[in-house]
Design a protein that fits this description.
71% of the residues lie in helices and 0% in strands. The chain is mainly α. The chain has two domains: 127 residues, Orthogonal Bundle (Cytochrome Bc1 Complex, Chain D, domain 2); 46 residues.
Length: 175
């Protein structure tokens, strides 16, 4: 009975993780096809950066805005009006054909990508001061990352030399 229960739970978890991964892939495809031309995750383009979107707005607000931002502006939504004015009064194209699940997938992708970017930046900051560094885990997504790696490439040998010199001096002083 315990083995059967373990198999059922394992199957459920596997299916849940698979569905979540599919949502992220679907969200990425939709984001790249529908959003990335005007929005970056961390960078403003024609429209605002979308990192933290679900922290700033409710799911209902996001759904309504994505489907028809102009209708929200005309109805007097202050936040929608402010976004519209901030970005040169350029209307966001209505995405009425997107389902609730499509929009949730996009938001899930934005959250995951924001977390990945933030984790990558933290990793790079810690790695820059590390004595031993495996460069394979650094994600070279943009020019800033390349500059960080370039700096690290120069900095790490100096740190290693310093460590070697310190250990050598320590051995001599212990004799």
């Amino acid at each position: 009975m315990k083995k059967f229960l373990a198999i059922i739970i394992s199957s459920f978890l596997f299916i849940s993780f698979s569905l979540a991964a599919n949502d992220l892939v679907h969200g990425q495809q939709l984001f790249k096809g529908r959003c990335a031309g005007c929005h970056g995750i961390l960078n403003e383009l024609t429209g605002p950066a979308l990192a933290g979107l679900s922290d700033r707005h409710s799911e209902a607000w996001i759904m309504a805005f994505v489907r028809n931002s102009q209708q929200m502006i005309e109805s007097g939504d202050e936040t929608a009006s402010k976004i519209f004015e901030t970005y040169n009064s350029l209307p966001m194209p209505a995405q009425k054909d997107l389902s609730d699940d499509d929009i949730r997938s996009i938001v899930a992708y934005i959250k995951a990508e924001t977390q990945r970017i933030n984790t990558s930046e933290k990793t790079q900051k810690y790695a820059a001061g590390a004595v031993c560094m495996n460069k394979k885990f650094l994600q070279l997504d943009d020019t800033a990352s390349l500059l960080k790696v370039g700096f690290t490439t120069l900095f790490v040998p100096l740190v290693l030399f310093g460590c070697f010199f310190y250990r050598h001096a320590e051995r001599i002083s212990n004799k």
